[in-house]
Amino acid sequence: MQQSQPMEQPPAVVSSKDQMYITDMLSWNLNACKKAHFFAEQCQTPEVQQALDQMGQMHQRHYDKILSYLNNNSQTMN
After folding, report:
1. CA-to-CA dists, residue 37 to 7, 15, 30, 60, angstroms
2. Distance, CA of 14 to CA of 16 (rounded, Å)
3. Which of 15, 38, 29, 78 is nearest to 58 (CA)?
4. How many Å apart are CA 50 and CA 78, to the nearest integer?
5. Which one has a higher pLDDT value, 77 or 15?
6. SS3 (DSSP) at 47
7. Rounded to whole angstroms, how far apart are CA atoms 65 and 16?
8. How far apart are CA 48 and CA 37, in angstroms?
9. What is the DSSP letter of 78?
């Protein structure tokens, strides 16, 4: 059985399936960020509130990183 090697560079063409997955990743991270923020506001326990805030910030960073990557690569392709 042959093991596949990871891609060093993403392909120049993004398939519609890839595009749908990227859209899903953005949606999941944005949704998780919003939910963490909402529940942190409702929380009475400072430690739990801090953990929820940190989780929300992590998902926000992931969202921003994906979006930044897409914006940078779309500019280089034009």
Report:
1. 35, 33, 11, 10
2. 7
3. 29
4. 42
5. 15
6. helix
7. 21
8. 12
9. -
pLDDT at 12 over 80: no
Q: Please tell me which residue, 58 or 71, carries the higher pLDDT value.
A: 58
Helices (H), the chain: 16-42, 46-77
pTM of the model: 0.75
Whole-Å CA distances, 69 to 9, 30, 42? 13, 16, 33
* 38-68 confidence digits (pLDDT tens): 999 999 999 999 999 999 999 999 999 999 9
What pLDDT shows up at residue 15?
85
Residue 74 and residue 19 in contact, taking contact as beta carbons nearer than 8 Å: no
User: Any residues with CB less than 8 A from the CB of 49 and at least 6 apart, and which?
Assistant: 40, 43
